[in-house]
Each structure stands twice: as structure tokens, then as C-alpha cells.
Amino acid sequence: MERPLLAVLLLVGLFIGCAVGSAYARARRGWNDYQTVKKSVPGARRGAWLLIRGVAVKAGVIALLLFGAVAYAAVGSDEDAAGPTPGQSPTQSDPPRR
Known about the structure:
This protein has 98 residues and is mainly α. Helix content is 81%, strand content 0%. The relative contact order is 0.04.
């Protein structure tokens, strides 16, 4: 009777041991991945800020150009303010008398 009991206990122990071993391996692999990503975060953060800065500069330049275009359109050009210039037209006068 002891032999089957020992066999069952051995199988249960092997099953629990495999489950615990695979959980430990998974946790160790996750910890190593976490440490790798943790070391790469400052470089990735710096790169992200550089990209954001580039986009902000481009958006600022575009906003300034749009503001300038709107201001120019609101003021108008100098040619319109001067009005039309008189052209040469023959004057109608009486013919000279003798």
C-alpha cells in the first residue's frame, strides 16, 4: 500500500515542482525584461522630447506665417491706398484765333 501512495506523492511533487519552476522562470524572464526596458527609458524619453520640440518649432513657424498673412490681408497693400493715378488725356480747348 505504501508504494502507490509514494508514486502518487511523487507525481504530485513533480507536478507542483514543474508549476513552480515554470512560474519562477517566467518571473525571472520578466524581471530581466523590466531591467532592460528601465535602462532604455532615459534615451527614449530624450528622443521623444526632441521629436516634440521639432513639432512645436514647426507649428510655431507655421502659426507666425499664418498670423503674418492674416495681418497683411487685413491691412491691405500700399497700391490700393494710393488710389488710381490720373492718365494723360487730351484737353479740349478752343482752337487758337488769328
